[in-house]
Specification:
The protein has 140 residues and is mostly helical. Helix content is 66%, strand content 11%.
């Protein structure tokens, strides 16, 4: 099995080098901005104070990050429908898109072109095999 693992690793490197994104920096987001967006994407709308508590940052720091993300159209503030005294922050559609793009490692356009050129059974076998590899990790 070790030989198979080495061969897979070599192929994985070649696939990554062939299809990784080259269009821009992988992320235009700072680590702190990414942390705020990721946390909101996982939890849903929160107050700035709640986000600050989770991120273990001063509320003023998180408030500044939220304000910057809001200016960039990635977050919006909205009244809490359950308690009109509270203001929640939440991702805008543009914020969701930016976060999804930030997570992309491969150039999906180039990858789709290559996958389309493969025979359907080989493409399905590739996806089935990758899925099996990932689920076998869960069992080990």
């Amino acid at each position: 099995m070790h030989e198979t693992a080495v061969r897979f690793e070599e192929l994985f490197q070649a696939v990554y080098l062939t299809f990784h994104r080259r269009d821009e920096k992988r992320s235009e987001l700072s680590g702190a901005s990414r942390a705020v967006l990721n946390h909101l994407a996982r939890t849903g709308p929160l107050t700035v104070g709640e986000a600050a508590l989770h991120l273990d940052r001063a509320q003023s720091v998180v408030s500044d990050i939220v304000s910057q993300l809001e200016r960039n159209g990635l977050l919006q503030r909205e009244r809490d429908p359950a308690d009109r005294r509270r203001t929640l922050v939440w991702l805008t559609p543009r914020g969701h898109d930016r976060l999804a793009r930030d997570r992309e490692v491969l150039d999906t356009t180039r990858l789709a072109t290559a996958l389309d050129a493969m025979p359907a059974d080989a493409r399905e076998a590739l996806l089935t095999g990758m899925h099996a590899l990932l689920t076998s990790k869960e069992k080990s």
